[in-house]
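User:
I study polymers; will you set down one protein's sequence and backbone structure tokens?

Assistant:
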Amino acid sequence: MTTLAIGFVLIALLVGLVLLGLQIAYALFAVGFLGIWIIRGNIDLAFRMMELTAYSGIADYLFATIPLFVLMGLLVSVSNVGRDTFEVAEELLRRVLCGLGVATVAANTIFAAVTGVSIASAAVFTRVAVPEMTRHGYRPAFAAGTVAGSSVLGMLIPPSLLLIIYGVLAEVSIGGMFIAGLIPGMLLAIGFVAMLMGISVLFPGFVYTDPQAARVKRLDRSGPKMSAATMLGKLIPIILLVFLVLGGLYSGFFTPTEAGGIGAFGALIIALWRRSLGGGKMWQVMKQTGAISVAILVLLIAASYYSRMLSIAGLPNAIADLVRAGGFSPLGFLMFYSVIILLMGMILDSTSILLIMVPIAAPIAQGLGIDLSHFGIITVLAVEIGLLTPPFGISVFTVHNTLDDPNVTVEQIFAATLPFIGVMLLVLLVVALVPSTATALL
């Protein structure tokens, strides 16, 4: 068997192990070790490369961005900033078509700029937005689908953990990836808003339990109003944090690591000011930060080891030759690659897809003249869609489990997220056809 054939068999083995339930890090280590041993015929070399990778894989100042941004996101979550953001958005948008749905998207957009994790957004806004939307006459399944659908903004709007992981795997600037995600992230948010308003007009029965009563309530000008001072007081913490982190990062005043440190410190000040860390919550936040960060760093070490095995097997170059021989244009390759990611998103989680595919696909994209920042945004967009597609759909299951309502089934939430998937596919196509949407600000 040729080295190339061994490489393809090992990739199939990796996917099979993950589908059988083996944790992705163990699967990557096992396949990488086995591949180096078989290809080189030297088990000692496989052990030595594992030892070198364990150190060199994350021995860089840049990797401090991961625990710092994770800590910032958890501190913001525990400080009820998400709830306050939604309350202000609700007050400002309650008389707009599908006002609370639009408010959920708006709040998720702002919240994403300081968390970077879709699952955190899904959990926070399920508790905050779904009960409020249901109380105002929205169908519970639609409310849950809106939260699940808009939560994916956390994976694209910087700072995003997926953008950080992609930047590490593809060896491109993390700060550059954050900048590249701005325009596509805003396109996605605007697309969600337009879609929600259009559906509420064309298919009101899909949105409201009683469309006529909901319309009367929307046009009702009575009821308590939040003062401008109250709204400003609720928004000041998150506005300052976004300005501090993203403003410093995009102006070049901070490196990504420094921005993470400043953001974590700012989030700590907000949490202390709001007295949100009592009752052992600070210890819980620190434990969660450690657990999440270590898990991500171990995954990156495993991915680096797997990537070295692929290089030894010559797989990226061989696949690149096949792509060129097949007559694929850069756009054709992007479309083919996106379809593969979308299919993988139905059975694997986001991080696993990145760890498996980026080491193979990024060198091919670069060889075809595709900007790796543009390629990264397409990758993350396609991966994000997998958060909403059955049977995996982790954002949908997060909303369903957090909601814990026997009257709202997983199937109903999946159905309610279909319009969001449609918008994401449209944005994916736009970004693929117009690279400047990702590279214009670089």
The mean pLDDT is 85. Residues 3-439 form one domain.
